Amino acid sequence: MSTHPLLFPRRAHLRTTAEFQAVFAEGKRISSTCFRLHARLPLAATEIRLGVAVAKRVDKSAVARNRLRRQVKEAFRLQRASLVAGDYVVIAKPGASKVDNAAIRVELLALLERARTLMPIPTPGTMPPVANAARKPTDA
Fold first, then answer.
1. Which residues contact 18 (CB under 8 A, 6 or more apart)?
2. DSSP string covering 86-121, please?
3. In what order do the strands lie in the sheet containing 28-31?
4. What is the pTM of this model?
5. Torsion of CA 103, 104, 106, 109, to 10 degrees
6. Second CATH level (architecture) for the domain 32-119
7. Segment 29-77, tens digit of pLDDT
8. How far apart are CA 61 and CA 69, in angstroms?
9. Hey, where are the domains in the chain?
10. Among positive and negative, which fits the CA dihedral 64, 70, 71, 73?
11. Which of 39, 75, 133, 135 is the most buried (most CB within 10 A)?
């Protein structure tokens, strides 16, 4: 199995309603003019996963909705290696289908860049981790 950073494997997709609902319930939200990004960035996450939602109210044409999905997935695939591990859901807003592909990519890249700031990176403290803090009995 290849671990190339630019691949977008099946395990990197959010597929079930429960996975989407968990991101909506526990995640943080940031918006732009064409998209809304929900990000759930738990400390223990090791995978970077994406879910995309493009409703029929965004555009009646399936061709236009699928174009938006492809652009979102491509921008995510290219940035995946530099993102914080967690679950991301991108929702297209009405009017997103009227924007050209280059503008879509620029907007998505800006959203993903802002998502990096949602979760502060933990800094090491002065106390040792609990697992390493096991004490040896002292001989008195």
1. none
2. EEEEEEEPTTGGGS-HHHHHHHHHHHHHHHTTTSPP
3. 28-31, 35-40, 86-92, 48-53
4. 0.77
5. 180
6. 2-Layer Sandwich (3.30)
7. 999 999 999 999 876 778 889 999 999 999 999 999 999 999 999 999 8
8. 13
9. 32-119
10. positive
11. 39
